[in-house]
């Protein structure tokens, strides 16, 4: 019971003083001051919502392992390691994980912990004096909760649907919700967010979800359901009216991810980070830097998680302007010699403290929207209309636009689109969902295990991917408590 109390419905908001738009907090557990004494003013609710935004960071820290590592984009850096750190990652990479897997449980627990924070805010909205603030916070909470459940349903399938604070007794009597019920709830939350959220904020609130953020996520939900007729009007509204756009000019792709250009016009929503020893810095530079590279790559050395596959690296031509920002093929060692050791570079900036980077992590980019709109048009038989939107992304990357004569069929367009999404959105945790959406997981991974030289280093045979591994199992701890069938 203690585990479920901790991870699903216990009130665990951390509160304190908002120091700036960077959403940094002077942390103090709510248990020390009491929920009742905390919610005294409208400002207290704003502070609680900041904690909900900060709560996006914990599940994201594990998400790469459940998405990119399970796709054909990344792999382990070493096939022979016996480290307890890497064995669970190998199980994800080879699709041999079980319901007792550590990273699966951590993602689940961190996600439900933040859903609990969000539900605590929504259950007390009637105490907010300002009607406009009440609407805004309800919209923000609805967006964040929908975001979490969208990730859960895509990763796990059927999960628990908790939309309010619940008692210990209620928790033990819950059953998982059907995927249909979950998607309906997500759509309802996002529709509410679209209606309640503003289209933009002042400089002190940059990074909060807007109605455009909610429309973008709702469009992605409809795309996931293959309801393209519902998705297309949302994509069109975003493209024509949101003000979002592809960055252009010198080093445009690099500028999308630059710490000097955060929340730029291409970013519709991001998980925000702040360096400076505040406990809300990004860990990804250290996670992804080569192991034993010392401080030649990043201060504090690297773990070399999420190592790009050789096959993915080979897909970038020398003319692709995304290449230098997306990954590095190695680094200069102590004697100035080049050490070939590829690693993810997209989320790099200098850090004074290990795992304390400044880089935000984009959740929805305008390039993603353009490509999904192109997909939707193609899926409803409007391939010729779709091509310019695919080409916008290609041309920004320094590649030649496809000519209509080069598209021989709708399926051919899909192949080109998936390739472009792979190169544009590499390491942004999108590739797994694309493979799943098109039913390509088993074929793609089986081919990878056969052709990527790294996998031949294993001294044991690698089995073909089983269909029951396409969705993650409910963590065994939850199964034991709720008597669910895994």
From TrEMBL:
Keywords: Cell outer membrane, Membrane, Signal. The keyword tRNA processing does not apply. It is found in: Cell outer membrane. Its main location: membrane. InterPro entries: SusD-like_N (IPR033985), SusD_RagB_dom (IPR012944), TPR-like_helical_dom_sf (IPR011990). It comes from Echinicola pacifica. This is Membrane protein. Belongs to the SusD family. SUPFAM superfamilies: TPR-like. Pfam families: SusD-like_3, SusD_RagB. Residues 42-222 form the SusD-like N-terminal domain. PROSITE patterns: PROKAR_LIPOPROTEIN. Residues 343-480 form the RagB/SusD domain. The keyword Cell membrane does not apply. CDD domains: SusD.
